[in-house]
Design a protein that fits this description.
alpha/beta; five-stranded mixed β-sheet; 53% helix; flat
């Protein structure tokens, strides 16, 4: 029950002589044991004997250890039982993987509360149904690609799993994982030449959007401004009181600070401030501007605070800021549904790739339609002309129209960047996805009219594991 619920089994007071003290925390295991003992006379008799004997030992300060007390509910006994269960589970998983003939692995690392890097090794295989099992969580002493490969290889060997039967791996995009010469994938390919590296799609999309939000000065300024406004108001309860007074007790939360890595925090804050594309009904833009204005004009605030509030307010109401926000709302309108689907537990690989293609198509359709997207005229600014030397032939004339300048330097560059990044990062295994598409039930009616190159990639990958498999059988 404890394992099923994901609960810890140990507590702060586990000594047997404290078990009759109901005010202490004995941990989930001992608390459940004490509860069951109330309804089991035999267990209750054993527990009471252990408590009495432990109290006598505890009172005798000259006695070291537990003397001859054997309770069978100490942490040592619990660890032995857990290790035994772990061994049986791993043995069962190992048998299923070997019956499946081939498998894929997923690995990722994270630091625990003691700042120790823990590597999770997950194996995915198919018998009568798809299985995805955690086979090991082990301390990672080195993050180098070769060391990570040795770590995974040793853990699989302990489970009697042949690493040469691995047909694919999924990792994040770190250099130590997918490096061409020293990455984990390179060393794994040496053991299993036919295995494919699949970069986590949700992570790929995260990097795509993170890159595009840092591409132009306008996008950098927009998200930096939102983050600074969030920090500026949230760091003082007096400033938060201005926000509460502006919203008139409607319990509307202020925007949170933006994460540098997780792009969804930028999308969430942007949507909260400016609303949806062409729909500002649920936005808090006006309330934020009013809050900053009230702070900048309040005599109770010091001069630096009033100055910063006014600076943020003027930057927030700039036309360029609002247009850039609408540009990213346009992008997020296509990428957010894709991101949500990529993070679902029952994600379909073929469906996800189709969604990527549809997202790229949608963005391409608006990539050169700036006039249709933005109808307002820009405020014309003074054109800065570079001095020209007498022997210069090239006539580098800057754009006279501010709107045209924004279209070329911001709108086109931003959309081109996200489209190119999506195409480059998601097109690695396109040939294999096309083969998968023909295996979809909706295409069975076309089975007699297959193109010549269909199933070549899948047949090539599976031949080493089952020599009877060829293109015709597939």
């Amino acid at each position: 029950m404890i394992g099923k619920r994901g609960l810890s089994y140990r507590g702060a007071n586990e000594a047997a002589y404290t078990l009759d003290n109901n005010s202490l925390d004995h941990g989930n295991l001992l608390e459940i044991l004490m509860l069951i003992s109330k309804f089991d006379p035999i267990l209750n008799n054993h527990v009471q004997k252990c408590i009495d004997k432990s109290k006598k030992i505890h009172k005798n300060k000259n006695t070291k250890g537990r003397d001859d007390l054997v309770s069978f509910f100490s942490k040592t006994t619990a660890n032995v039982i857990i290790e035994g269960i772990t061994k049986l589970i791993k043995q069962k998983i190992s048998e299923e993987i070997n019956q499946a003939n081939f498998f894929t692995i997923q690995i990722d690392t994270t630091q625990d509360i003691n700042v120790v890097d823990q590597c999770s090794i997950i194996v995915r295989y198919v018998n009568n149904q798809v299985h995805e099992q955690v086979v090991s969580i082990v301390n990672c002493k080195s993050g180098k690609g070769k060391d990570m490969h040795e770590l995974v290889s040793n853990e699989l060997n302990k489970l009697n799993i042949d690493i040469t039967k691995c047909i694919g791996n999924s990792t994040d995009g770190a250099a130590n994982m997918q490096g061409q010469y020293k990455g984990f994938t390179k060393w794994l390919t040496d053991d299993a030449p036919k295995q494919l590296h699949v970069w986590c799609y949700a992570h790929v999309l995260n990097l795509v959007i993170s890159d595009v939000t840092q591409k132009t000065n306008e996008s950098i300024s927009l998200f930096s401004l939102l983050n600074k406004v969030a920090v500026f108001v949230r760091e003082s309860y007096l400033r938060m009181n201005f926000w509460k007074n502006t919203t008139e007790g409607k319990n509307i939360s202020f925007i949170s600070t933006l994460g540098e890595i997780r792009w969804w925090s930028k999308e969430k804050s942007l949507r909260k401030v400016f609303g949806s594309l062409n729909d500002s009904q649920n936005s808090i833009f006006v309330q934020i501007c009013q809050t900053l204005f009230n702070i900048s004009t309040s005599e109770s605030m010091n001069s630096d605070t009033r100055f910063n509030a006014n600076v943020y307010l003027q930057m927030l109401i700039k036309f360029d800021t609002i247009i850039t926000a609408q540009l990213f709302l346009l992008i997020f309108k296509s990428t957010t549904p894709l991101s949500n689907y990529l993070q679902t537990s029952r994600m379909d690989l073929l469906q996800s790739y189709k969604m990527v293609e549809n997202t790229i198509k949608t963005l391409k359709d608006v990539s050169r339609k700036f006039i249709d997207v933005v109808e307002e005229d820009f405020k014309e600014t003074r054109i800065k002309r570079k001095p020209k030397f007498h022997d210069e032939i090239i006539n580098d004339t800057p754009y006279d129209c501010s709107k045209k300048k924004y279209e070329i330097n911001v709108y086109n560059i931003t959309l081109d960047t996200v489209i190119e990044s999506l195409e480059n990062r998601f097109s690695k295994h396109k040939e294999m996805y096309i083969d998968f598409e023909w295996l979809h039930p909706t295409n069975f009616k076309l089975i007699n009219n297959l193109p010549e190159n269909v199933m070549n990639k899948i047949a090539e990958l599976l031949t080493d594991f089952s020599p009877n498999i060829d293109k015709k059988i597939l």
